[in-house]
Amino acid sequence: MGRWKRHGVIIVQYLDDHDPPHVHVYEDGKRPAKFDLEAWEAMDTHLSARALKALEVLREEGVFD
């Protein structure tokens, strides 16, 4: 499991989770959103600009490589 916090957003990746490769995005006590790492898009809902920025920062850091 990987767990990161950027811009007040918590992002969790479970290693044995189902395909496609994705993370769970937790923001402001809302139900977690799933974000597809291959397509680089939300899977089941819209994400806020803050959540998208947090994901972009992690990508720039090489976390998802």
Describe it for me?
By secondary structure, the protein is α+β, with helices and mostly antiparallel strands. Helices cover 18% and strands 32% of the residues. It has a five-stranded antiparallel β-sheet with strand order 1-2-3-4-5, covered by helices on one side. β4 and β5 form a beta hairpin. The mean pLDDT is 95.
Alpha-beta classification: alpha+beta
H and E order: EEEEEH
Low-pLDDT stretches: none
Quote the beta fraction: 25-35%
Oligomeric form of this entry? single chain
Q: Considering DSSP H and I runs of 4 or more, what fraction of the residues is helical? A: 10-25%
Silhouette: globular
Radius of gyration: 11 Å
Strands of the biggest beta sheet: in what spatial order? 1-2-3-4-5
Question: Total helix count?
Answer: 1
Count the E strands.
5
